[in-house]
UniProtKB/TrEMBL annotation:
Catalytic activity: a peptidoglycan chain = a peptidoglycan chain with N-acetyl-1,6-anhydromuramyl-[peptide] at the reducing end + a peptidoglycan chain with N-acetylglucosamine at the non-reducing end
HAMAP family (alphabetical): MltG
Family label: Belongs to the transglycosylase MltG family.
Name of protein: Endolytic murein transglycosylase
Molecular function per GO: lytic endotransglycosylase activity
Leader sequence segment: none
The protein's role, per its UniProt record: Functions as a peptidoglycan terminase that cleaves nascent peptidoglycan strands endolytically to terminate their elongation.
UniProt key word Flavoprotein: no
GO cellular component: plasma membrane
Gene Ontology biological-process annotations: cell wall organization; peptidoglycan biosynthetic process
Positions of the record's site feature: Important for catalytic activity: 212
Superkingdom in the source lineage: Bacteria
Amino acid sequence: MKKLFSLFLILMLTAAALFALLLFLPKNNGQAVRLKVEKGQGISGVSRQLAEQNAVYSRYVLVAGAYLTGIQNRLRSGNYRLPTEFSSWDILRRLKSGRPDTVTVRIIEGMRFAQMRRIIDETADLRHDTLGWTDEKLLAAVDPQTGSRHPEGLFAPDSYEIDTGASDLQVYRLAYRKLQRNLKEAWDDRQSGLPYQTPYGLLIMASIIEKETAHPDDRRLVSAVFANRLKIGMRLQTDPTVIYGMGSSYRGRIRKADLRRDTPYNTYTRAGLPPTPIALPGRAALEAAAHPANADYLYFVSRMDSTGKSQFSLTLDEHNAAVRRYILKR
């Protein structure tokens, strides 16, 4: 029994020594390592990322060390620049007490500007200089020369990486400038005969396309439907503009009374484009607005299936049949 106990003790001490060695021994990676910690990500995902870069001796030792120190689920999101040589213990200390070197703010296509502001306001490790500002004041700070007082659609959805502690105004400026570049490229490359005469009109159309479909195969077809309607003086009759005009009164569904209630954004009661964009459009939606498909469709309806595609029709009778098939299931 004494021999067994001694053997067990030796094995335990050897394992502990090996664990400590792998935890505290610095590893030279030959170059600095970038580590990106997503919001809500735990130590398992982080260790896997480092193992894929061959930046640690053992991801399992890193995970065990995180659990021993109690930080496995308390990691600060952001981008970390790790030196050329570091140990797993150095990583844990950095994740526990250090601030990330950069912060990533992700703005998704189709979001409203109000949602963008909320995301930025809630992003840690930024200096929130614009908190409480009106939209008008924010726009003036972003671009003193802007002729618009309405911020919707003027900021490009994307992932923006800025230094920790930087002003949140920097995110708005980056997104604003990117949208201006994307819009200029789309407008300069537009096809002839579009039913909108200004880049801002194209931006409005792109925002509608963004809200109507996320399927890449349907964007230019949706664009064609709306362009065709505008050309013949037909109302756009698109639900996303109605929803935008309803503001906070929208509760997840549109009633017939909502379609009849006139607002500047109700494209069932008013002809032409709404007065402003209704969302933040991505580059693909801008390109679709600038290049409608060569099709004569005037109607479309969602197929309500896993593909996310729509059914397009030339006539109202065809459209009503599609509604019965895909919406009413008859």
